[in-house]
Amino acid sequence: MTYGAAGRETRRAKREGKPSRYALNLLSAILGAAALAAGGCAPASQRAAPEQTLVRGPQEVLAAHNAWADSIRHVWARADLMLDFPLGEGKRERHDVTGHLFLEKPSNLFVHGEVLGQDVFTLGASAERFWLWIKPNVNTVWTGQRGGPGEARLIISPSALAEALGVFRIDLEPDARADFVAYPEHYVLSVGRAVGGKRVLVRRIWFDSVSLRPMRVDLFDATGRRTLMAELLKYERVGAAEVCTVYRARFYGDEEVDLVLRLKGVRLDKKPNPRVFEYRPPPGAAEKDLDQPPETP
């Protein structure tokens, strides 16, 4: 694993006889502290306390993230969802529903929405299978083998949504091509892989520079095309851990799907009922196996 941006910048700075960005950040912090110490233009009681920015390295950021992620084994939460998805022929439909989100690492995910106590939408995944059921207008369930070709064709990938939650470890492969860049308010980790002699982006994650919690997660397909952009907008303390409770995501494919997810009553000490992670086709729903080749017109 290499952190290309930091290494390239440092080497370039040495060749040019200039300080690197990280050296400049450190120098700026030292000069700022000295200026404040030598100030005296106003009494201490009238001066705002200086903000101190600690520049952390990639190993420290990832270690902190992984320790936090490992502390969360499952999530039980009520949820308010807004779904905006295509219907074809340029038409779209929006639904605002209430329901639940259940997560059990490493593979199980279940999200459902209901109106007047009746389910109208479910998205689920286990280690073996994924499924998406939409009742209004179509009453259809799309399903397939987890990790198979069909999951990439689903308008909302359960694997992508699980990653968007931000609570999984980030373990980089030894040959991963990773860049890590520090900004004043956040850090950005970009992870790629070599494809045909070129670097193709796999995912990019923004971390808050103070809390080191994920702020945004972008995922990309094998060609480097973005498949997901998810913003983690609000964190709340649940027991000893901070958990994001407001998400805004956009799934990219042939057409785009927007999702806003607000979690309430989050429990980290309550295991979801394992039955919710079992695939059971809703009665009367049409079933489409996405692992089968698409039908030709």
Structure in a nutshell:
The protein is of the alpha+beta class and 297 residues long. It is 17% helix and 44% strand.
Quaternary organisation of the protein chains: single chain
Task: Find the count of extended strands (DSSP E, 2+ residues).
Answer: 15
Fourth-level CATH superfamily of the largest domain: Lipoprotein localisation LolA/LolB/LppX
The first-to-last residue Cα distance is 46 Å
**Number of structural domains:** 2
Major sheet, described briefly?
15 strands, mixed
Structural class: alpha+beta
* The CATH class of the largest domain: Mainly Beta
Poorly predicted parts: 5-52
The name CATH uses for the topology of the largest domain is: outer membrane lipoprotein receptor (LolB), chain A
Total DSSP helices:
4
Indicate the overall shape: globular
Portion of residues in beta strands equals: 35-45%
Please give the order of strands in the largest beta sheet: 1-8-9-10-11-12-13-14-2-3-4-5-6-7-15
The average pLDDT is 83
State the share of residues found in helices, binned by percent: 10-25%
**Can you tell me the CATH architecture of the largest domain?**
Clam
